[in-house]
Design brief:
Blueprint (H helix, E strand, L loop, with lengths): L7 H46 L4 E12 L5 E11 L4 E11 L4 E8 L5 E8 L10 H4 L33 H20 L4
Length: 196
C-alpha cells in the first residue's frame, strides 16, 4: 500500500474523516444513554417530591408551569407539582426553582403546605464549592443553623448579614443568598399558581 503524501489537503481530509467518525460514535453513545439518564432524573424528582412534602404516599395531581420575571427582568420558569395524599386531600405543592449560585446554577425543589409554609427542600442540581456552598443541602434543614423549615416566605427570607433572620452558611454568603432567593421565588410562583 502506498503511503499518503503529507500535504495540507490530505491532513485536512484525514482530520475531517476522524472528526466525522468520532462525532457519529458520540451521537450513538448519547442516544444509548439518553433513556437511562432521563429515567434516573425522573426517579430523583419523584423521590425529591416525597422528601420535600414529608409524605411517602402521595400523588402528583397536576403539574403547572409558571413564568415570572426576576428583579433584573429575566424571565424564569417554575415547575409546580400539586400534591394530594392517598385520600385525595390537598397537601400543597413542590416547586422547582433555579437561581445562579457561586459556582453556577442552583436548582432547588421546595415543598409548601397549602398555607405556604415550607415543609422541606432538596437540592436537585448545584455546582457549588464542595465543603462550603455544597453544605446548602443540610444547612437550612430542620434543627440546623439556618433552619427554614416551617417558615412562610410571605415575608422574604434573608440572610442575617443582610438584616434578615436566616444564618448564612459559614464562608458561603453568596450561595446562601442564592438559595434563599430560589426559595423566595418558589414561594411567589406557588402563590401565582391558578387554583384548581
Amino acid at each position: 500500500m502506498k503511503k499518503l503524501e503529507s500535504s495540507l489537503t490530505n491532513m485536512v481530509l484525514v482530520l475531517t474523516g476522524v472528526a466525522v467518525i468520532m462525532g457519529g460514535i458520540l451521537a450513538f453513545v448519547n442516544h444509548l444513554t439518553e433513556g437511562p439518564i432521563n429515567a434516573q432524573k425522573e426517579k430523583a424528582l419523584a423521590d425529591g417530591i416525597k422528601t420535600v412534602m414529608c409524605v411517602d404516599e402521595l400523588t402528583v395531581a397536576k403539574t403547572d408551569e409558571v413564568r415570572q420575571n426576576d428583579a433584573k427582568g429575566k424571565e424564569m420558569l417554575f415547575k409546580i407539582y400539586q400534591v394530594k395524599d392517598a385520600q385525595g386531600q390537598d397537601l400543597g405543592a413542590a416547586v422547582e426553582s433555579t437561581t445562579g449560585g457561586f459556582g453556577g446554577d442552583l436548582k432547588v425543589l421546595v415543598g409548601f403546605d397549602p398555607e405556604g409554609n415550607i415543609l422541606g427542600y432538596t437540592l436537585l442540581e448545584h455546582a457549588e464549592t464542595p465543603g462550603l456552598g455544597a453544605k446548602a443541602d443540610k444547612w437550612f434543614q430542620k434543627g440546623e443553623k439556618g433552619d427554614i423549615i416551617g417558615k412562610n416566605p410571605a415575608e422574604p427570607l434573608v440572610v442575617s448579614k443582610d438584616g434578615g433572620q436566616v444564618d448564612a452558611i459559614t464562608a458561603s454568603t453568596i450561595t446562601s443568598r442564592a438559595f434563599l432567593l430560589a426559595v423566595n421565588n418558589a414561594y411567589k410562583a406557588y402563590k401565582a399558581t391558578p387554583a384548581e
